Amino acid sequence: MALEDVARASAGARAMVLTVAAVPLLFVISGLAIRYAAFASVSEETGFEAYARALCRWDCAWYIGISEQGYERFPIPDHSNVGRWGFFPLYPMLVAAIRSVFPFPTILIATITSIACSYAACLVAWPLLDKNMRAYVLYCAFLLSGPFSFHFTTFLSEPLFVPLTSCVFLALKRSSYLAAGVSSALLSATRLVGVFVVFATVIQIFREHREQGGSTLSFPRWVLGRPDLLVAVLISPAGLFAYILFLYLTVGDGFAFLHIQRAFGRVAGNPLVFLWDGLSAVPTTGWLPTAPQWSALAAITGLALSAVLAARRQYGAALFCALCIILPLITNLASMVRYVIGLAPLTMMLVVLLSASRLIWLAALVLFLGACYFTTVAWIGGYLALV
Questions:
Q1: Is the N or C terminus of the chain more exposed, i.e. has fewer CB atoms within 10 Å?
Q2: Alpha helix segments (H runs only) across the chain
Q3: Is residue 285 part of a domain?
């Protein structure tokens, strides 16, 4: 009887593993079908490569340039005076490495790699969602078949940023601090705001110290007695520091990724003023919000969800997400929708809230799948709120 129980348990475990793997795969297929239908409705071209090129909008072109040509030294005759240094190198390097093995067009390799990364992000989210199947299904639908799924399936930073963020928080949940440090280092080489995840690591270390009965005053001494914790914290910004060193040696300015922001129209200002200006940009015709209004609403929603994370005692995730929103908001509202939906702790919190009721969960799932078509058409058409 004991052996039969073990066999049944093993069969149940295998079924669960297959289900967890199959759910995101289903949404990979449905997302491709919906987005391709949207592409076919606005383009006379056919084929997967034409589809991949059509979805390669805005920053995607910069990442292709980095992957194929690297970072330029300034100035270069007959080239743009806006350098590529504002875009961090890890994902273009990964695509270039894969292209060296599979000699296909860059956008094809990047699109397939992005889909694979987003699929992996779903798998990592399963334990982070506490194996809540309804929330898991909704999260997979959001990433792979949802209204913003083109962000996670083309050559942008989000397809790598999301799974690496999830890996950090999964490692922290399991107190695997060295794994969290390595993932954090990779995250800081993917986007500048990735460096902020080190605060989540420090907060989790402090929480563990307090749970063991330690005091606040004894925390520094306790950390100094744990070399593994020190290494985890110190290597977290390694990706950013490596990029700074690279820029210093090749361009002569280690902070070129910051200084080039002015060429993209990003100048430091009051984030409250930017929010007010965005909300005040009312439409002159029609009833749909303008692009600045969508961006301002996305920032406010992101900060509100960060507050929900804090209220649920997920202080590290809350601080990380808030900083990832506030830093770009200091310059302007550009790309704010993409920045907010690319924060894995926020989207996981959102799907958990939407999954509390079966009816709301079903409505959200239908909305995600239905909106995918229309937002993809808008993305291909260059709608600024989605940039």
A1: N
A2: 2-42, 48-55, 59-69, 90-101, 106-128, 133-145, 158-173, 177-188, 197-211, 219-224, 227-234, 238-250, 256-259, 271-280, 291-311, 315-329, 336-341, 344-354, 358-380
A3: no
The Cα–Cα gap between 39 and 26 comes to 20
pLDDT at 387 over 90: no
Lowest model confidence (mean pLDDT) among 66-80, 95-109, 223-237, 350-364: 66-80
Long-range contacts of 260-268 (CB under 8 A, 24+ apart): 260/82, 260/83, 260/85, 260/86, 261/86, 261/331, 263/81, 263/82, 263/83, 264/82, 264/86, 264/334, 265/332, 265/334, 266/328, 266/331, 266/332, 266/334, 267/331, 267/332, 268/330, 268/331
The radius of gyration of the chain from alpha carbons, rounded to an integer in Å, stands at 22
pLDDT of residue 75: 57
pLDDT at 286 over 50: yes
Count of CA atoms in the C-beta half-sphere (13 A) of 258: 12
- How would you label 71-81 residue by residue, b for 16+ Cβ within 10 Å and e otherwise? bbeeeeeeeee
- Does residue 191 belong to any structural domain of this protein? yes
Range of the domain at 373: 14-267+358-386
Structure tokens at 210: 């307090």
Residue range 79-101, pLDDT digits in tens: 666 778 999 999 999 999 999 99
Tokens 């929480």 sit on residue: 207
Task: Please tell me the pTM assigned to this model.
Answer: 0.93
Q: What is the sign of the dihedral through the CA atoms of 189, 190, 195 and 198?
A: negative
How far is Cα 350 from Cα 365, in angstroms, rounded to an integer?
Answer: 13
Contact 321, 302 (CB under 8 A): yes
**What is the rounded average pLDDT of the residues 20-26?**
95
Domain count, the chain: 1
How far apart are the C-alpha atoms of 90 and 20, rounded to whole Å? 28
Spell out a b/e string for 259-294, using b for 16 or more CB atoms within 10 Å of the CB, else e. Answer: ebbeeeebeeeebeebbeebbebeeeeeeebbbbbb
Q: Is residue 333 part of a domain?
A: no
Domain assignment present for residue 37? The answer is yes
- Tens digits of residue pLDDT in 344-360: 999 999 999 999 999 99
Burial of 378 (0-12, 13-18, 19+ CB in 10 A): middle
